[in-house]
Amino acid sequence: MPTGLRRLARIAALQTLFELEFAANSPDSVLERTLSTKALTGDGAGFVRELVHGVLENQDRLNSTIKCYAIAFPLDQLAAMDRNILRIALYEILIDDQTPAKVAINEAVELAKQFGSEKSPKFINGVLGSVVSRDKERRKQID
Q1: 116 by DSSP, 3-state: which?
Q2: pLDDT, tens digit, for every residue of 63-73?
Q3: In the chain, how many domains are there?
Q4: Alpha-carbon torsion 23, 35, 32, 89, what sign?
Q5: Which of 59, 80, 104, 113 is the most buried (most CB within 10 A)?
């Protein structure tokens, strides 16, 4: 799938997850509405669905990881955009394992630049960099 299409899919997933934090709507109805407004079909729509459902199904694990690596920032005090950008990237890095970590981090930083605050890109990059660094060390110990 082309990089541009994957970025659009990540944006759609982010917008869906952001809305789900504040609305009591069903995930599938929000997801389908988002897909229709973004005109994403085929592989792009599939990737959005995979990200949204993957994040929702693994939210406890993702939140625990965020809490572990962003100790100074309680999860409920993080900006909702930052929280969801981290969840998407962590899902891609730790669970889905289809996207190289470096690409997932770069994409998350780009989302933070577009949708987060002025400090979001640096924060997102720092948290994800720490997760990846620690994960590499853990894998070395296993081997």
Answers
A1: coil
A2: 999 999 998 88
A3: 1
A4: negative
A5: 104
Tokens of 113: 């630049």
Give me the domain span that covers residue 21: 3-142
Q: CA 115 → CA 22, 79, 80, 108, distances in Å?
A: 17, 11, 10, 10
Cα-based torsion angle of the residue sequence 72, 73, 76, 80 in order, rounded to the nearest 10 degrees: -170
Q: Which residues, other chains included, contact 58 with Cβ-Cβ below 8 Å and sequence gap of 6+? A: 91, 95
Distance CA 80, CA 77 (A): 8
- Identity of the amino acid at 68: C
CATH code: domain of residue 136: 1.10.940.10
Task: Encode pLDDT of 28-80 as tens digits.
Answer: 899 989 988 887 778 889 999 999 999 999 999 999 999 999 988 888 899 99
Residue type at position 95: I
pLDDT exceeds 70 at position 138: no
Mean local confidence (pLDDT), 120-124: 96
What's the whole-model pTM score?
0.90
